[in-house]
Structure formats: C-alpha cells, structure tokens
C-alpha cells in the first residue's frame, strides 16, 4: 500500500489535501512510509488479537476444598501468557480489613495453607501435577512484594471452562480470600 492509499484509508478527510507539498514530502520519506506500514500492520493485528485478563476471586473457609470455574467467552479463543495470584487470610472479627504484610513479615500470607489444581475441562488436561502449594504459582516465592507473574502459556478454545480446585488446609480453620488472573490475549478466529 502506498502512502496516498494509506492516507485515504486512515487519515481524516482533507488531512493532506490542504497541503499537497506536505503530502509529497511525507510520501517521499522512507522513514515515514515504514512507520505508516507498521501502524497499518498493528491495526490489522489488533483487529484479530488484543490483550485481555480473566479474573476469578472468592473466599474459602478453613479445612474446605472447593472447585471454582472460569469460562472463556463464546466469541474468541484465549492465549494465556501469565498467571498472577494473591491470597490473604482474615478472622471473622476483622472481616472488613485484609492484613497487608509489613517489612518484618509479621502478617502471614494465606498461601501457606492454600493449594490448587488447574484443569482445562474442554480437553480434560490437568495443567498442574495434582494440588500445588498456592505460593509456588502465586507471586513467585510468595514474598512481601509482587515480583513477576508466573509464566503460564496455554491456548484455551472459546467456550472452554478452566477449573481451579482449591484446598484450604489452614489448621486454624481461617477463611481465606484469593484472586487468580490469567493474562494474555483474545484471538478472533473463524469458527
């Protein structure tokens, strides 16, 4: 596509028509032509693929195991690149505020009692080796600060259901709040 076609397709009407000299200078500049081609490529790709995050969050009582399901929407497939997660425990008497760990680590993370198993129910594939301690997948090392998301590359088909089986083995039977996010991009593909 040449620059004049690009301008007709992407610029507001009259953008360069008021200044033919400017249009000629721009058209003859290989750097601008390269940038214009790159922008057009990005627009084309973004029409078919864009960043997206699926999130699931809930609470789980102590000494309980339960399944939680995340559904990939009907219209697009989803390529997951990273998984991020966090969890906190709280007592019933202080349910309005969640503890935040301080630099001394005096507030324990809930992940010490949580474990999870991830399954792609469409294919029947287990995506973890049984139940995995939450802190191994949630913020790596489950330290006091968010470090890096966990690399979790997997292609989920539209209408897939992702099952998260979560166990709370907290001996004190405390309720835990958790949140899990799958970060990646939606892909518009023919059905």
Task: Please give a structural write-up.
The protein has two domains: 3-48, no CATH class; 50-187, Jelly Rolls, CATH 2.60.120. Helices cover 20% and strands 38% of the residues. It contains four helices and nine strands. The longest helix is centred in the first third of the chain and has 19 residues, at 30-48. The two termini are 29 Å apart.
Quick summary of this structure?
The protein has helices at 3-10, 20-27, 30-48, 134-137, and strands at 49-60, 64-71, 77-90, 114-120, 125-126, 132-133, 150-156, 161-168, 175-187. It has 191 residues and is α+β, with helices and mostly antiparallel strands. Strand 4 and strand 5 form a beta hairpin.
Write the layout of secondary structure elements.
Elements: H1 3-10, H2 20-27, H3 30-48, E1 49-60, E2 64-71, E3 77-90, E4 114-120, E5 125-126, E6 132-133, H4 134-137, E7 150-156, E8 161-168, E9 175-187
Antiparallel strand pairs: 1-9, 2-8, 3-7, 3-9, 4-5, 4-6, 4-8
User: How would you sum up the major sheet?
Assistant: 5 strands, antiparallel
Q: Indicate how many domains the architecture comprises.
A: 2
Order of helices and strands: HHHEEEEEEHEEE
Please tell me how large the radius of gyration is: 24 Å
| Total count of helical runs of at least 4 residues | 4
How confident is the prediction overall: mean pLDDT?
77
Low-confidence stretches: 94-103
Supply the helix-strand structural class: alpha+beta
Helical amount? 10-25%
Mind telling me which CATH architecture of the largest domain this is?
Answer: Sandwich
- Output the CATH topology of the largest domain: Jelly Rolls
Large-scale geometry: elongated
The total of beta strands comes to 9
Strand proportion: 35-45%
Could you tell me how far the N terminus lies from the C terminus, measured between alpha carbons in angstroms? 29 Å
CATH class annotation of the largest domain = Mainly Beta
């Amino acid at each position: 596509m040449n620059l004049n076609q690009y301008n007709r397709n992407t610029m507001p009407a009259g953008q360069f028509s008021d200044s033919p000299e400017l249009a000629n200078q721009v058209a003859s500049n290989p750097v601008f032509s390269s940038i214009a081609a790159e922008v057009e490529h990005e627009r084309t790709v973004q029409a078919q693929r864009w960043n997206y995050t699926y999130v699931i969050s809930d609470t789980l009582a102590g000494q309980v195991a339960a399944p939680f399901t995340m559904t990939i929407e009907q219209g697009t497939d989803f390529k997951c690149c990273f998984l991020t997660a966090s969890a906190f425990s709280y007592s019933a008497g202080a349910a309005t505020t969640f503890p935040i760990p301080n630099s001394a680590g005096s507030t324990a993370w809930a992940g010490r009692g949580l474990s999870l198993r991830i399954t792609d129910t469409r294919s029947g594939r287990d995506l973890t080796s049984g139940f995995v301690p939450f802190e191994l997948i949630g913020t790596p090392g489950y330290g006091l600060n968010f470090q890096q998301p966990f690399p979790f590359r997997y292609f989920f088909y539209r209408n897939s259901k992702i099952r998260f089986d979560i166990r709370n083995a907290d001996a004190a039977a405390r309720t835990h709040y958790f949140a899990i996010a799958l970060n990646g991009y939606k892909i518009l593909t023919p059905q």
